[in-house]
């Protein structure tokens, strides 16, 4: 069942069973990320973080031209002081941190161009599924700046510091095939396949898992990304194991398996 959530000016948000769909809806700017749009992104992911029935979220852009064509330069042109620049970074970082820390997987559905801050937003997600015509790149250097949403660290973690440094200093835009080859994209839609169909195909095996299993593994992934200590990793993995082991879904699965084995043993 599809339910629209209409409290946002720059986003189109829908809930479909265990999936949350978030669409950046600023086609007149190629879905560029203004400060207001970033604040709404953070708010929507924060608002749904406690929804225990969710299994995944999909973040995409409106239309077929751009996922997010960087920051909104007209809006950002007003930022002229050190204090305002610091506030811009902190606000954008906080917004993307809500995406990074969302307790279930977030898939960036790259429907088109994802560059600059748009590429940073894509890397704040757990996975990236791209249309065949999509492209992405950290091109901030072309404007004489470095990454401003915290996505530089995400790129370093994903590719490793050497490959990431090469990518940001070249400031190149990669097509979908090139992006997958270097590890930025996880899946590409076939030429005759819609991006939505590709996303659903990509998510299908994950959605077979129970919400509590998904959340346990996402928590562990977050802990590893944060470089936490071995003791903290043990705590996170233990908590997830204890919670999922004692959930009724686990015992139902055990009963099904034991019942099947008993039937086979009596043949």
Topology, pairings included?
Blueprint: E1 2-5, E2 11-16, E3 19-24, H1 35-48, E4 56-61, E5 66-69, H2 73-76, H3 82-100, E6 106-110, E7 113-115, H4 117-124, E8 127-130, E9 135-137, H5 151-159, H6 161-170, E10 174-175, H7 176-182, E11 187-188, H8 195-207, H9 211-225, H10 230-245, H11 248-265
Parallel strand pairs: 3-4, 4-6, 5-7, 6-8, 7-9, 8-11
Antiparallel strand pairs: 1-2, 2-3, 9-10
Describe this structure in words.
The protein is an alpha/beta fold. It folds into two domains: 2-207, 2-enoyl-CoA Hydratase, Chain A, domain 1, CATH 3.90.226; 211-265. The protein has helices at 35-48, 73-76, 82-100, 117-124, 151-159, 161-170, 176-182, 195-207, 211-225, 230-245, 248-265; strands at 2-5, 11-16, 19-24, 56-61, 66-69, 106-110, 113-115, 127-130, 135-137, 174-175, 187-188. A seven-stranded mixed sheet has the order 1-2-3-4-6-8-11, with helices on both faces. It has a four-stranded mixed sheet with strand order 5-7-9-10. Helix 1 runs parallel beside helix 3, helix 5 crosses helix 6 (161-170) and helix 9 (211-225) packs antiparallel against helix 10. It is globular, with a radius of gyration of 20 Å.
